[in-house]
Amino acid sequence: MKVNEIAFSCYPVTDMARAREFYEGVLGLKVTMDHEMEGGHWVEFDIGEGTLAIGVAPGMNPSPDGCSVALEVDDFDTAVAELKAANIEFNFGPMETPVCHMAFVRDPDGNSIGIHKRKPGHG
């Protein structure tokens, strides 16, 4: 098997309307696919070369202990300020490492979302 890229990452959500308010309203992501199916609902946001999805389906359960996606932003300080202005609670950071700035928040279902900015030369 040869893996070429991550096709998509998905967060399970319990309330699609509430989740979309966060992903579209707070994070500013644009829907590129919206598919309702029997017993489920799947929404995708294309970001650069990748796709972040949110989904409601039997057996998909949100967890604060699951995997995280970090979203690369143009301006880290502005992104942090916008999240704070929206009263989004930070569960980690903001912090600086030798290669980046990062902070993590949670979506309405508790899934961890990273806000990230690489430093020049680390990309």
List the keywords.
single chain, 123 residues, alpha/beta, 2,3-Dihydroxybiphenyl 1,2-Dioxygenase, domain 1, 4-stranded mixed sheet, 2 helices, 8 strands, VOC_core
Structure, explained:
It comes from Roseibacillus persicicus. This is Glyoxalase. Residues 2-118 form the VOC domain. Strands 1-4-3-2 form a four-stranded mixed sheet, with no helix packed on it. It has a four-stranded mixed sheet with strand order 5-8-7-6, with helices on one face. The protein has 123 residues and is an alpha/beta fold. The radius of gyration is 15 Å and the shape is globular. It has one domain: 2,3-Dihydroxybiphenyl 1,2-Dioxygenase, domain 1 (Roll), CATH 3.10.180.10. The protein has helices at residues 16-26, 76-85, and strands spanning 9-12, 33-37, 40-47, 50-56, 69-72, 90-96, 100-106, 112-118. The chain is built from two helices and eight strands; from the N terminus they run E-H-E-E-E-E-H-E-E-E. Helices cover 17% and strands 40% of the residues.
The geometry reads as globular
Structural class: alpha/beta
Low-confidence stretches: none
Largest sheet: 4 strands, mixed
* Percent helix range: 10-25%
Supply the CATH class: Alpha Beta
The averaged pLDDT comes out at 94
Order of strands, main sheet, comes to 1-4-3-2
Stated plainly, the CATH topology is called 2,3-Dihydroxybiphenyl 1,2-Dioxygenase, domain 1
The CATH superfamily turns out to be 2,3-Dihydroxybiphenyl 1,2-Dioxygenase, domain 1
Distance between the first and last residues' Cα: 26 Å
Radius of gyration: 15 Å
Q: Please work out how many helical segments DSSP would assign.
A: 2
CATH architecture: Roll
Number of E strands: 8
